[in-house]
Amino acid sequence: MKAGATLFAQKINHGQSEIWLATDDEVLTERHKIATNEVINVTRRHLTPDAFKAFYTDHHSAVGHTAALTAPNLEEILSELRLKPLG
Question: Which helix (H) or strand (E) holds 84?
């Protein structure tokens, strides 16, 4: 995985989110629409309680808001969310 990679999750409405992986200057995966509950369930399983609480609060702050997540086990999270690399 590329250094500085971050998972972004934007809440589209109260049931769907759009997720993608990017660095500061490059998008690394396709954007993928997914159930908001799936984003929450996957991150809950893979993050520490404190990290999950911070991500959950950020992700649920408002529709249209984009939350960012970096974690040491980001590859596991990406795999379970089925994000596909560009190209």
Answer: none
Q: In this structure, are residues 17 and 62 in contact, taking their beta carbons and an 8 Å threshold? A: no
For 31-82, write each residue's pLDDT tens digit: 999 999 999 999 999 999 999 999 999 999 899 999 999 999 999 999 999 9
DSSP 8-state symbol, 76: H
CA distance 12 to 39: 13
| Cα 28 to Cα 48: distance, rounded to the nearest angstrom | 25
Residue predicted with more confidence, 25 or 77: 77
pTM summary value: 0.91
Residues listed for the chain: 87
Of the chain, the end-to-end C-alpha distance in Å amounts to 15
